Amino acid sequence: MGNLALLGVLGAAFAFGVGSALLPVFLNAELYVGTMGALVTDALELVFAILALSIGTVIGKVFVFELARKGSSKIRSVDRKPSRNAFFVKVRQISDWLLSLLDRRYEGALTVLVSSMFGIPPLAVVTVMAGASKQPLWLFLLMVFIGRTAQFLAIAFVVHKAM
User: Fold this and answer.
1) How much is the pLDDT for 27?
2) Backbone CA torsion sign across 147, 4, 32, 65
3) Which one, 42, 60, 99, 101, has least CB within 10 Å?
4) Rounded to two decimals, what is the model's pTM?
5) For the chain, which residues make up each domain, given as ranges?
């Protein structure tokens, strides 16, 4: 891939990262990574594209985190209907436990890392709740970068090797 084409891929990945952080329901980063893994032929260029996507995600999460931090007095907990499926009950219990850790600096960082890597609890929810909690911004962003980069690399290279 030429330099100009690589810059285009990196710019698109960065922009998609910002967009997926702001609108995760509409812009699915994991699907984008899978597509990149299938289309980008050079492994090193794929790594750079993943890093650009992760950096874009982190920058987008800054906006969401800071909005939640400034409006934290307006964030209320929402009552959810209990699930009847035992698996989903267990997942919810784990999610609730992880979310309860966000007011603690390092335990909350674990929640952000797990959410960034595995999506439980959803990173969009964790971002808002971390912003409303005592979670330090620098630690939150570091955990998002590490978790999302690890997840994206795993997805991309599984798809890349399958092609």
Assistant:
1) 95
2) positive
3) 42
4) 0.83
5) 3-74+81-162
Tokens representing residue 1 in the block: 């891939």
Sign of CA dihedral 140, 67, 57, 91: positive
Q: Which three-class secondary structure string do you get for the chain?
A: CCHHHHHHHHHHHHHHHHHHHHCCCCCCHHHHHHHHHHHCCCHHHHHHHHHHHHHHHHHHHHHHHHHHHHCHHHCCCCCCCCCCCHHHHHHHHHHHHHHHHHHCHHHHHHHHHHHHHHCCCCHHHHHHHHHHCCCCHHHHHHHHHHHHHHHHHHHHHHHHHHC
Residue type at 29 in one-letter notation: A
Give the 3-state DSSP-derived string for 72-109, with helices as H, strands as E and coil as C. HHHCCCCCCCCCCCHHHHHHHHHHHHHHHHHHCHHHHH
Is residue 56 within 8 A of residue 17, CB to CB? The reply is: yes
Angle between helical axes of 123-132 and 105-118 (0-180°, round to 10): 160
Q: Specify the residue for token string 């400034």.
A: 70
Judge contact between 115 and 52, C-beta under 8 A. no
